[in-house]
Amino acid sequence: VYELPFGKGHKYLTTGAGGAILGGWQVGGIFAQYAGLAVGHSINVNNENLGGTVRGDWVRNPNLPSDERSIDRWFDTGFAVASAPGVVSNSGRNLIYAPGRVNVDLMVSRIFLMPWEGHYLQFRFESFNFANHANFGSPNTGVGTPNAGKITTAEDPRRIQFALKYAF
Length: 168
Prior knowledge:
The chain is mainly beta. 4% of the residues lie in helices and 33% in strands. It has one helix at residues 16-22, and strands at residues 2-3, 25-34, 38-39, 42-43, 57-58, 80-81, 96-97, 101-113, 120-128, 142-143, 159-167. The strands form four sheets. A five-stranded antiparallel sheet has the order 1-2-8-9-11, with no helix packed on it. It has a two-stranded antiparallel ribbon with strand order 3-7. It has a two-stranded parallel ribbon with strand order 4-10. A hairpin with a 6-residue loop joins β8 and β9 (120-128). It is rod-shaped.
C-alpha cells in the first residue's frame, strides 16, 4: 500500500483545494504471474489390465507451439496411442502444460477524518482481476475422448467492490 504524497503533512499540495482533493489517498495492488502447471493425462483404451491410470505409448511431444494453441486445441491429442494388448505403456506423467495465469488486483482508499476524536470514515475501491485477463483452467486430458485438448473452464472475470467503513 502506497500513500500518495499530497495533502496536509505530505510533500506536495499541502494547502488549498488540490491538497484537500488529492490528499489522504492510498493505492495498493498485487500482480501475480504464473507459468502453467504440468498436468497428467490418461488414454481411454486399457490394454494393460493392470488397474490405475493408463497413459498409452508416447509418440511425440504433446505441447503445441504457443501460436497454435487455442481453447479448442490446447495440446496435440495424437501424442499418445494405445499400447499393444498386455504391454505396459511407456508414456510419462505430467507431460502437458496447462495455461499460465496473470492477475492484477487493485485497491484505492481514503480516510476522511470526522470532527470527533478517533472517528473516521474510510472509503475503499477494490478490483480483483482489474485488467479482466482471461485465466483459463486446465484442458481436458482424457486422450481419445471427444473433449480431449479442450479448455472448458476459466477463473472469475473482473470483480469490483466499493466499501464505506465508519470507525469510532
